[in-house]
Amino acid sequence: MQVIFPLLIPLLTAILGLLAIRSSAGRRLFFAASAGGQLLFSLWLLASVFSSGSQVMYLGGWSAPYGIVLVADPIAAIMVVLVCLTAFSCILYGFQETSIRNEHPLRLPLIQFLVLGLNLSFLTGDLFNLFVAFEVMLLASYALLTLEADDWDVRQAFPYLAINLFGSAFLIALCAFAYGLFGTLNFAHIAVRAQEMSGEPLLVAFGMLAMLVFGIKAGLFPLYYWLPNAYPIMPIALAALFGGMLTKVGVYVLLRLFGTILPHDMDLLYVVLAWLSAATMFFGVLGAASRPYIRGILSFHILSQVGFMMLAITFMTPFAFAAAILYMAHNIIVKSGLFLVGGAVMVLNRTDKLENTGNLWVRTPVLGVGFLLLALSLAGIPPLSGFWGKYMIIVAGFTAGEYVLVAIAIVTGLLTLFSMLKIWMGSFWQSKESVPVVTSDRRWIPMTVIVGGLTVISLIIGLLPEFFIQMAMTAAEGLLDKDAYIRLVLGDLP
Amino acid sequence: MFLVSSLLAGILFGVSTYLILQGSFVRILFGFILIANAANLVFLAMIGDPRGRAAPVLAANEGLPMTDPLPQALILTAIVIGFAVSAYFLFLLYRIFLDWKTTDAVDLFKKSKPTDV
């Protein structure tokens, strides 16, 4: 029963907020309260999933393979918590960034629709329902992307829309193939049927198509060009939400698909995905090094880190899956935090072009410490949160004997550190006579507090890794244990 | 039947990809409308051959095997979603036209922002 609430609350909040609330101050209060409530609720769901087992809900009372099911297993619950956390901090941050008179009245309802789409894609146990969830999420993201973009930047929405429309058409085709191949769209039922077909080449073709579809959504090489140009046109609060969450849906679906749904013997698929993800991480980080402004660097880094997660998926062991999950959780928090630091820099220096920023370490050391902790964590310096995920991925790579891939991952880590240092030198460390620091603009103080909150969460993950690694292991074992998932959803059906 | 509809879907996918790769906004828009329908056709093909099968209504059935109604329900959902997205896409293209005074995608990305000049 708890499963429905992460969907119901954002939906009702968005509709009520659109219909019933007229004043902008009232709207802010209402949406912030709702987002905070969702965070608490998702934590409760997580706690009950971990203490008393996964939950299943049969929508409309239709039993499993016939109706739509919602499944909250450990990984889904973790992702829902991360969505609510990022959405909550980005909503609060948006209040600081945009003054109440400049805020578009549709922004907050659209964020709630986005959260609804994200939560549904994590909780659903049905392939076509996943398509619907993606469309809810994408429509909200199209609207948010162009809502406050200026007249010249709006052209960047065109490639974003085009590639996602293309991906959506193939997602429908993927659903059709699944229906034709397996005669069902329920994840658990597909898993049963796919196991019987194990070894057939058609399954590999199905997996390849899935990799194309969700690779587009996740920003896999060579399908990523739409991302790094589109995200910087949004206000920082939205860019942080998009950068933190949207690509991770693609990664999550691939985890679910390769772990739970398809048989575990599709080596060709894993090899292709492994090399694509190595290319993604490498070219992503090179792209980041080429960009002269903070939002551009961070947008390219999203790709590079998606590559890390995908690489971990291809090793197909519980340990590697746990590494991917831990890394994804860390990355969502840290990436959003870094975008938010970028926003504070934009407030203080009036720009985020590196050549026109500076002096921040002297004037706002607290923000500097926050940035340094987040950036070093992103680069994977021990004992910060990014280190554990990366370390586990590299160990998994050595165990699998993939030395070349591991070498690429390590080089990428070094380049990540390099481009983070570029921001550090450009914006914080260097003193430039000509660059003003507008500390009289008080918005940077609450912004720094929000960044600090995310930094503290990242530090907790880094300093108490055992607890979180344990959680990730549980989630990974849940993902890879097909039989448990099938029993959970279908009961004792054959 | 299956072969015919697969071929048709393949041709539609090819034609729409060709249209999407053109420069003109209108052709790109038509390409995307067409590709959504091509995907829907793939779904419809999964029913198999409907000849010699009864409508999936239990009362009117005379013992014949029934057609599968599920893909049609799913296609209907996909059409509705595709319609909403196409409407949004059309409007986005119109807004880009108003701002940049061009209806050509190649031209659009060749121009530079007035502030950069």
How would you sum up this structure, described in words?
The complex is a heterodimer of chains A (494) and B (117). Chain A is mainly alpha-helical and 494 residues long. In chain A, 76% of the residues lie in helices and 2% in strands. Chain A has 20 helices and 2 strands. In chain A, strands 1-2 form a two-stranded antiparallel ribbon. In chain A, helix 3 packs antiparallel against helix 18, helix 12 runs parallel beside helix 16 and helix 13 packs antiparallel against helix 16. The longest helix of chain A is centred in the C-terminal third of the chain and has 32 residues. The model of chain A has no long low-confidence stretch (mean pLDDT 87). Chain B is an all-alpha fold and 117 residues long. Chain B has one domain: Helix Hairpins (Orthogonal Bundle). In chain B, 66% of the residues lie in helices and 0% in strands. Chain B has 4 helices and no strands. The longest helix of chain B has 31 residues. Chain B is elongated, with a radius of gyration of 20 Å. The model of chain B has no long low-confidence stretch (mean pLDDT 85). At the A-B interface, helix 5 and helix 6 of A face helix 2, helix 3 and helix 4 of B.
- DSSP strand tally of chain B: 0
Taking all Cα atoms into account, the compactness measure Rg of chain B is 20 Å
Distance between the termini of chain A: 25 Å
How many domains make up the 3D coordinates of chain B? 1
Order of H and E elements of chain B: HHHH
Largest interface: A-B, 29 and 34 residues
The biggest sheet of chain B amounts to: none
- Main sheet of chain A, how many strands, which sense, barrel? 2 strands, antiparallel
Shape of chain B: elongated
Structure classification of chain B: mainly alpha
Share of residues in helices of chain B:
55-70%
Query: Do you know the CATH topology of chain B?
Result: Helix Hairpins
